[in-house]
Give the backbone structure.
Amino acid sequence: MKSHLKIESRQLNILFDSLKDLGYTIVGPTVREGSIVYDNIDSASGLPVGWTDEQSAAAYKLKRRGDNSYFGYNLSPYSWKRFLFPPRVKLFSAAKKGKSFKINSDSGNASVPIMSLPNYAFIGVRPCEIQAIKIQDKVFNNWQYIDTVYKNRKEKVFIVAVNCTQAGGTCFCVSMNSGPKADNGFDIALTEVIDKGGHYFIVEAGSEKGNELMSKIPHTVAGQSEIENANRLVQTTARQMNKSMDTKDIKELLYANLESRHWDDVATRCLTCANCTMVCPTCFCTTVEDVTDLTGENAERWKRWDSCFTMDFARVFGGNFRSSSRARYRQWMTHKLASWIDQFGTSGCVGCGRCITWCPVGIDITEEIEKIKEKGGKGEYFNHKDTKVTKEIKKD
Amino acid sequence: MKNTTIKVDYLARVEGEGSILIKIKGNEVTDVKFGIFEPPRFFEAFLRGRKYSEAPDITSRICGICPIAYQMSAVHAMEDAFGIKVTGQLRELRRLIYCGEWIESHGLHIYMLHAPDFLGFQDALQMAKGYPDIVKRGLQLKKTGNDIVNVVGGREIHPINVRVGGFYRVPTKKELNTLVDKLKWARDAALETVRWTAKLNFPEFEQDYEFVSLRHPNEYPFNEGRLVSSKGLDINVKEYENHFEEEHVSHSNALQSVHKERGEYFAGPLARFNLNFDKLSPIAQESAKEVGVLKGVCNPFKSIIVRSIETLYACDEALRIINQYEPPEKSYIDVIPSKGIGFGCTEAPRGILYHRYHIGDDGLIKDAKIVPPTSQNQRMIENDLRTFASSNINLPKNELTWKCEQTVRNYDPCISCATHLIKIDFEETKI
Amino acid sequence: MNSNVGIDSMFPLPAQIRKVVWETEDTFTLLLEPDNGGSDFHFSPGQFNMLYAFGIGESAISISSDPSNKDNIAHTIHRVGSVTSVFSQLEKGDVIGLRGPFGNGWPVEKAKGKDVCIVTGGIGLAPLRPVLYSIFNNRKEYGKIFLLYGARSPLDLLYRVELEKWGKMKDVTVQVIVDRCDTSWKGHIGVVTKLFSYIKLNTANTIAMICGPEIMMKFTIQELSQRGVPPEQIYISMERNMKCGIGLCGHCQCGPKFVCKDGPVFALPQISQFLEKKEI
Amino acid sequence: MKIKKPKVAVFKLASCDGCQLALLDAEDELLAVAGAVDIAYFPEASRRMLKGPYDVGIVEGSITTPDAHEYIREIRKMSQILIVIGACATAGGIQALRNWKDVKEFTSIVYATPEYISTLERSMPVSSFVHVDFELRGCPINKYQLIEVINALLNKRKPNISTHSVCIECKLKGNTCITVAHGIPCLGPVTQAGCGAICPSYKRGCYGCFGPMDSPNTVSLSKHFAESGQSKYDTMLMFRGFNAYAEVFRKESDAQEK
Amino acid sequence: MEKRDLSEIVRHHPFVNDLSEYHLNILISCVSNVRFAEGSYIFHEGEDATKFYLIREGKVALEIHSGEKGAIRVQTIGEGEVLGWSWIVSPYKWHYDACVIDNVRAFAFDGKCLRTKCEADHDFGYEMIKRFSQVLEQNLKAARYQVMDVYGR
């Protein structure tokens, strides 16, 4: 069993200083114009001290907590995806050379030497976000071809996880098995405790780097009751969660309901604006843009985030595989919750609830699953033949 | 010159679609028409029933060259109607964004629209072949103006950040500081521009104009002040319509504004300069003195120098505002719309721009009146054409034609602005 | 198998055009030689390359040449968009970019000892030509070969000389059908599935490979199934909007499959459930 | 090696001039553009007015007069490729607000030819009269998009002009959604990207100046506005703005009046 | 040829190979053996549709004539297929020209004879309708796919 350590809250700044000493650029939660975002911060005072956020479908609000907690909020609008998998990267630049062309060797983000990348330390990574990073590892860094932009960034990052001591209004990590406590995938993990005993953090180190860092920060070995306090907070958080998703046979459910009338119903509400995919910590689709200068002598290729909700996404010359918004929403949800499992051996959803909070019209993925189940369950749209085929595919 | 007609069907290097027609019989100019055939767009009509808060964005679409002017006149008129006064840093930011528009618009006019006339080029792109560095300097100067509008307003054309009561978001100090080095360069470039334009060849042409502009007790006017003229006018903006009226002439899709008693008048840089020379910053005044252009300049061809001096002033003023800038707590003053009438008049790059709105209980616009600078100068432009053509009647036709075009360009007329309305009694139109 | 793994998997390598062959009015074949010589370039029938027109963009193009011929890597291209239009204007000696080969291939190994029935339409013949070459290179290892090929009109037929040559080979049946024509055409007219009337399939021992527009593949599958070819013996090649070619950009999904990395060739049971549904 | 430079002409119809100004506002690129193409007709910038035909015609402004009808057909004939720029040319512009008003009365005062009245009642996009090869959206257009279109034409590629929602741009920038976080009504989810999501970046709601995105669900958004307490009149005004006559927005604003 | 032998040979044709002996015999009562040489026309548009054919060998192209474009071939019918359905659909006129493009051997069935038998024996009539409606459905489907121009884009 891992040993639990304890840091007093007033010593949190030493953690910042130690990370800086190790050459890290610190990114953490901070208040910017009415929301808690992940941005560069210098010290613990940059954290959203005493702030929390209230989240529900299509609503987000900052509020005062009435205490001095550093991590008393739930989740920022954006995940760490922005830093590990930036929204726009240059893949290469190239120049014409006679009839041929030459790729400039140091031209793109893909070929940026790993040494010159920023050394990020992420502070305040939630357990669901750790799960999301693990999922992106499987997407980008798990077969013959890898995303070097992601891989190089991921390799260097130092992760300070913070376990959740309250549940947000759109959280359902318990259903997705991704929180409210992180068991691994971090360098150190903190649980913030404020009680009669004071304001302190229970710390677990999850890597050699983590142990090394802890050796630089004044700490004590946590007492049993303190550990229990922390555990109790996490357990309460799990119980507080008022959203859930039944994931049993969810893949089979969705595969069996590809023609459910319910997709038409969602399509009347869905704006196909793509917000859900942008804020999702695991969505990974990209497109490329080729550009030239006016002379046509120099060219660049850029990669940027894309979304299965755009009309161009599945367009080929002469047609579009998914021109209806019904098909696009179905693609997103079925991919996230079902086909992802076939592709990467894990669900693509971590239960962070961002797609619910940030959908401008408040479409709630957990509710939609319930409705599909209800309608499918009636047998009206449930095609038993299809489920059989699904099982055959599994064997394949 | 015998009987001849000078005809320019499509006047180039002005914003919008205008034409010139001058008929000459023997040694006499018998007819002059500065025609505007730009199609009318009925802004006053469709402003009715729109929310007061939409006026700055909608009226900015009257003109893509000076959208800030429209936004500023609109917000001041609305605030006047609701009895609100925007002060402090918010007021300064409004001056700053206006500086941006002046620098951009003047830069465009000096280098791309007007200077080619003096140097005998069809356009600035051709001029760039002979004077590459000068054209590049002009572009860079203009760009600095755009940069200000961009940072404060969100984009160069039809900025999105201006609202009644202030701004949607105020810039951070850091954002404004990115402009400082550019502006310092621009201030030097503007000074060079003053010196360069002063060396151009100017036709002998001086007229006894009535200059009309705003005048503010403490500053060179952008947004506020009384309306004054070189012939003794001194009124509150609210009284504008008591003293000025618009007339419809058959050859133009735009209304011509005249002083009720004295007829045509002159608005724009030359008017501002002559009526507010004392309020220019020291560096601007010095540059004027250096090139010998002083208060009382009455040659409209020299407006290119005055525009340069105003550009220099705007750079200087922008730097002053940025230096002392502290972001205000709130980006706007709360606005509670109420029934009433509001007036606004600000100094567009081309001259005074007057707005008047009648607002209902519901905050909706009941009636709007807008008088853009080009409408105000239109009659004077015709006058200048007549005088100029009469006194240069012996020039070869091509040369006279070009010189007449240049005479119009002295005013930097913005025809898109001028044709925001036509003579229609909207009162009778069912909305 | 792939030399360009990792960092440069997104970098196109220059490849010189050795020859341009116009197959029809709007379809042409580029014979390419990669910069490093073709010697490293191995591919399986059915794989594709991402071809790059400098500054314009990329297009996923199947390789249409004989896998045993290392000198000329052929791509038969239908001129439809801006990238392929640029390709259509190129000449011998011009250089384009190449990434690949990507994707899996046709089951040429599994088909050994069996009859092979190839059903294609339009440009769909191109990715199957390497299969025919492979089979003819190892002719004894295969049974009867059927090639059923549909095209828009007689003028749109690809590889006409080869079609004729193949048709004369022993135990090879080539049947061609067109959608429309004038009276000079003496061949079949109608949809490609009609050609099944004229051949005799040993359904239990036949591997079917289909490539063409999705709708054509759908009715071909129906026909094959009706005739009793088991689904696991039917293979199809899918088309999607491929951007990266290496399973990272997400564009080419069809159900749980990434067409670029799990396909483009699929055994029918892998994909049939999704193929049946609209707009998957 | 270089082939003859393409002849480009810039034409103006009913508009504010802002979109053609965007070309002059591209200070850093202007001279390069002028080097790559022959700007043969551009009255706002030059006295030099070469006759057609032109390789590329760029049109700003909407059709509001009978003369403009004829003019645009002439322009079409003269231009091998016709690009229309800005909300006026692509959707009738802000002056299309007249399309809802009774202009019969005042048009008959102004123009004597009654058979033209019906056409004058409306401000219409160029594509209602002639075939258009490319429509560049925006009130005003984004100058970088204009350069991109010219660049793409010169280099024979497809312009990188996205037709998806403003939301994607907004999120790429890293903005926090102002609708969700601050309750500010925003047309971003139904509006085409291209402006750089400036309004949300300045904490105000998008007012739709790039027109409808490629698959806008205005009905759902309006419903959400209503549920958030916005009046039908205010929602009507939002859709009836700078792209009021773009079909989807027009239908939605009409629906709000029912 | 003996009836017995004829029924054996006709039964080989896929169109009727699952027909009951009884119905096959009715059919055969109206049959004749025919040959057409390449280049000849079996029937022309507008003529009375007096027959249908089961093709045993060879190939027939259906043509439509349009003034300026000349003959357009829309479908071919070959071995194992059936040519002609107009005999069963009022007003019993051919809609195409049938041009032989490969020497044809076929069974011809007399339409008028069959129609009388269909009226007399509705079971037989229903059997015919079932088979010919399938031919019509396939033709319709094929025509639709061809119109879609799936390879053309």
